[in-house]
From TrEMBL:
It is found in: Cell membrane. InterPro entries: Na-dicarboxylate_symporter, Na:dicarbo_symporter_sf. The chain crosses the membrane at residues 12-33, 53-73, 85-108. GO terms for molecular function: symporter activity. Its main location: membrane. The keyword Cytoplasm does not apply. GO terms for cellular component: plasma membrane. It comes from termite gut metagenome. Keywords: Cell membrane, Membrane, Transmembrane, Transmembrane helix, Transport. Pfam families: SDF. It is a multi-pass membrane protein. This is Proton glutamate symport protein.
Amino acid sequence: MTVKRKAFSIPLYLQILLGMGAGILIGIIALHFNGTPFIQNWIYPWGRLFIRLLQLIAVPLVIVSLIKGVIGLKDISKFSRMGGRALIIYLVTTIIAIMIGLSMGLLVKPGEMIDQTQIAHIQEKYQVIAEEKAIVAEQSKEQGPLAFIDDIVPN
């Protein structure tokens, strides 16, 4: 009798939490030891590639799931009810999201509590930094060593 051993005996949710904690810890250490260039050149491209791959697969996955669901219907009359129900759910959730967003905007009134002199001070303070960043961005047209990996997957 052979006993199969799982590759990861740690539950998935704990692996995710440990990964998040490790990411936060590595980020703090990198900031403390000025590891920003290393992160931007060697770690950031892999994360961006991962996100782009997720975006690349999302639309085909949804379309194939919808097609499979439609093909799996035995009674065509259920299709119209399901489509109508999906449309109603979509419209209702959209209206609820709009109502929540508008009510929070009217309730909180973002930007209204900031004094005009404070706004002018903030703009003056960060104008030079913004101009420096724009110059650096123009100069950094030549990207890091892993830029070719980032360009493989379209966004």
